[in-house]
Structure formats: structure tokens, C-alpha cells
Specification:
- The model has no long low-confidence stretch (mean pLDDT about 85).
- The protein contains 4 helices and 2 strands; from the N terminus they run H-E-H-H-E-H.
- By secondary structure, the protein is mainly alpha-helical.
- It has helices spanning about 10-30, 40, 45-50, 65-80, and strands at about 35, 55-60.
- The protein has one domain (about 10-80).
- Helix 3 (about 45-50) crosses helix 4 (about 65-80).
- The relative contact order is 0.15.
């Protein structure tokens, strides 16, 4: 399955929409929890893109948890362990 946020299937409109939704939610309600779930989280390159927003949580189906944990851990190491408490 190709994600709308992957380099090969990247849709700038989807990326802008996610950016707008996260920004507007945080402006409207400071401290609001931000999370992502579903197939986007299960796609490693899309998950890396979503992690730019420093979500409070991500969730995906059981078959994808191991890969999602790996991606989040790798990104934390690359960022010096400062994001995604």
C-alpha cells in the first residue's frame, strides 16, 4: 500500500493539510494531545514525516507495531533523544 506521504506517492496537499490541522489545533487549545493512527503510521517513510509534528502518540495495527517502534526509536536517536517522551 502506498501512502500519500511517502516520497514516491507524496501529495503536497495532504502534507499541507496535516501541517495546518496540527498548527491550528495547538493554537486553539495549547497542550492539546496530537496523535496519528492507521495506515500512515504503519508506513515507515510516512511515519518519519508525521513525527516532525512531535505527536503525543501514534498507533497502528498489531502487525505494524514492531516497525513503528523501530522508526520512532531511530528518529529519537537521530534527534538526540529529545523528542517524543
Amino acid at each position: 500500500m502506498e501512502s500519500a506521504l511517502t516520497p514516491t506517492g507524496h501529495d503536497p496537499a495532504v502534507r499541507r493539510l496535516v501541517d495546518i490541522c496540527v498548527r491550528e489545533a495547538r493554537q486553539a487549545v495549547p497542550g492539546i494531545p496530537i496523535g496519528f493512527c492507521g495506515e500512515q503510521v504503519a508506513e515507515p517513510t510516512a511515519l518519519v514525516e508525521l513525527l516532525r509534528h512531535e505527536p503525543d502518540y501514534v498507533s497502528c495495527g498489531p502487525a505494524h507495531i514492531e516497525v513503528a517502534r523501530y522508526v520512532v526509536g531511530r528518529q529519537r536517536r537521530q534527534d538526540g533523544g529529545t523528542s517524543w517522551a
